[in-house]
Known about the structure:
Blueprint lengths: L10 H7 L1 H4 L8 E5 L6 E8 L2 E11 L2 E2 L3 E5 L4 H15 L7 E5 L4 E5 L5 E2 H6 L7 H15 L7 H9 L4 H10 L19 H8 L2 H16 L3 E3 L8 E3 L4 E3 L6 E3 L1 H19 L8 H29 L4 E2 L2 E2 L5 H31 L5 H4 L4 H20 L7 H12 L7
Antiparallel strand pairs: 1-2, 2-3, 3-7, 4-5, 6-7, 8-10, 9-12, 10-11, 13-14
Helix pairs in contact: 5-11, 8-14, 10-11, 10-12, 10-14, 11-12, 11-15, 12-14, 14-15
5-S-methyl-5-thio-alpha-D-ribofuranose (SR1) binds next to helix 7.
Amino acid sequence: MGYRQLTEATVVDYVASVPALAARFSSFGAIDVREVGDGNLNYVYIVTNRTAPDETVVVKQAVPFLRIAGESWPLGRQRMVFETAALRRHAELVPGMVPELFHADPEMSLIAMQNLRAHRIVRGELIAGRRLPRLADHLSTFLARTLFFTSDLHLDPAAKKAAVAASVNVELCRITEDFVFTHPYDDSASNAYPAGLRQAAIDTIQRDSELRAAVAEMKWLFMNAAEALLHGDLHTGSIMANERETYVIDPEFAFYGPMGFDVGAILANLWLAFLARGAREGDAAFRPWLTETAEAIWKGFRAKFLDLWRESDAGRDGASFVGRDLDAGASAEAFRQRFLRRLFADAIGFAGCKMMRRIVGIAKVADIAGIADPAARSRVEEQALAMGRRLVIERHRFAAIEEVSALARASASLERFPA
Ligand code: SR1
Ligand code: MG
């Protein structure tokens, strides 16, 4: 039948016309439909039988434009193909951490999946000051397993290259190249400068050759380091959780890229939440929980990734990525330690870019954009620019994640940046 954009008025007919979805409903006599897409790209509908609320599905459809910018900004619908493939791969690698896929319709650029009714978007939970006790454990597992098992550390080289070739997500990578690594720093017309953010603060990221060269290094890495299958947009709006479970959603930006990009994305969003907390009332102990969670994610990821790696090497009959074992595993272990040190620096650098883009770029984060008091919001924005800037420039200097927590605390005490 070809592509047509669904609406709240037409999505039920679509669901009823697909046997795999229709079978989930005992009747279509009393259906509620809500469009809940709060992302920047797509439309998301929750379809529920009012008389039997367990009968519910989520329908997500890509439209041929960038939603945040409007219909005048064309964008291919191919992204749904990448999202579908990544959801399937992640379901194999981290079962129970991605929504169950009920139906995929490439022609309609649409998927239908499990409605995570018992879980909330993590960004909203952090804004509300609610702790998620299993979040760090779950996310470190997600990162370790998805990044290790899709890399050359685990896969046969030919299988890895085939996976890279199948994941060339040109359009969405271009969005990241432009909106994370270029536009925020070149005074693009697409930027959205917050009212009250001083020009002097903007200049610290746009008129500083050291910073711009460092950001360009991160962009180069993003474009050229096909290390593992990334989620590609792992911010706290792409994660749903409750006290017991964590789900990672929305992998439409998935592609083969540098591992540190996914790790840095989640850390950046926790540090943004930390800075934003300074402008919110409430439980004072919640703020340190955010940096502790970032620490636990990095440490958990590092430990789990190394465990998977050592275990995998142990099954390789004395041969690992470094080659045949001639020194009782010392070369292999030295490579592992160097690899993780380099990955840590990459993650910190990417986190810095992700923090700065959320201040001057078109796509904001509610943690900061939602701060009601303009002076308090501007202060947090300048703190985020100051911290992001240092993370990128000094990414090789951090020896431990606690040093980044210390930088977050120091940044949170800045009144203005530059002083
Ligand atoms: C135009 S920028 C839109 C942003 O939304 C997505 O969530 C990605 O972060 C992207 O950069
Ligand atoms: Mg998204």
